[in-house]
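Entry for zinc ion complex. Fields follow.
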Amino acid sequence: MTLRLYRSDPYLASFRSRVVARLTYKGAPALILDQTAFYPEAGGQPHDTGTIGSARVVDVIEDAQGAILHILDGVNAGDCPQPGDEVACCIDWARRFDHMQQHSGQHILSQAFVRVAGLDTVAVHIGQTDCTIDLPTAALMPDAIERAEREANAIVMEDRPVLAYEVGDADLATIPLRRPPKVSGTIRIVEVKDYDWSACGGTHVRSTAQIGLIKIIKAERRGAETRLTFRCGGRAFDDYVRLSAATARLMEALSAGRYDVEQAVQRLITEVQAGRKALQEAQARLIAYEAAQLLAGAVRDGDQLWVTQAFAKREPAELRGMAKELSRASRVVVLLGASGDQAQLVFARASDAAGDMSEALRRALAVLSPEGAAKGGGAPAFAQGGGVAADLAQVQAAIAAARAWLNDQLRATSVSADKS
Ligand SMILES: [Zn+2]
């Protein structure tokens, strides 16, 4: 069985070891060593990476039999260490120390929520960017986060020792464990001196000051639980650097003080909303005015008024607005279109006018795109479509085709009406 050096000395970053076995794990070479400081993925803490000889260790896992497999990359079969070889091993210390800061910080934060809000942590995740704890409440008291954060950071600043020791069943009852252990027999306890006792096999800093800042950056409700995202130490510092730089840029852009940026953004949002509303009102007035102009130039044919117009590049919403406005007039048929990369057609008629707009649109779309790429549809009184590139002349031709078809239909209807 491999001796786990990280348990007695979590600060051991380079060591020598002897290869016990060489095997293949999911197609990659893997080694079992007689002793290792490589931490395998366990208890929510991610695995270490590093090197064994000239090979890179990309994953470390503990198999069902309790063997620790070091998965290698960047080594060809001939260069791979053999059983019996003594090898120089090195773990990626920056990555490991980051995990230690997050893990120790998590123990303190979980205890802080017990003391401040009476909430036990029910799940933990230590990720490569974010760490989370889940608390068994859907409604966290509004000030609980800040109070727990302040308490956790006070424990950091007191620089309390973090101890790891093993206890047997007989002595377990004397330890005020935060949560009951998942295993029986001899239990490894990680103690933040006189503050928190956890059954834990992970690697931890030797005193709380090494954790650095503990900061919760997000709280989200998940069913009956609340998930808190937090960052510790170097990660919290990096986060502060980024947010500080972003704040400085906003201060400059908004000519606002450091703590006035939020208010300045709120003012900006209010202004944008008011501006948008004013613009919509102005556009509506403009469309009504344009509609009146078009109606004045409408062509009378039989007992219907015809408004046909092709525009160069108009927003579909504007075309719709104009068509709806126009079709309020009595006995009016409106055939509008706009050219562009996404040409549009909008056909409408008054409720007392005749003609099937949806069928007329179908004829017009076939002119825009004989291959059938132009799509659209609607009802007898209103239809719209388009979506293919077309220039002004093509849009005019499509509208003319719709008009001609409608004329034929109306004439046929009136002839049959005359006969009856
Ligand atoms: Zn732990």
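NOTE: The two ends are 104 Å apart (CA to CA).
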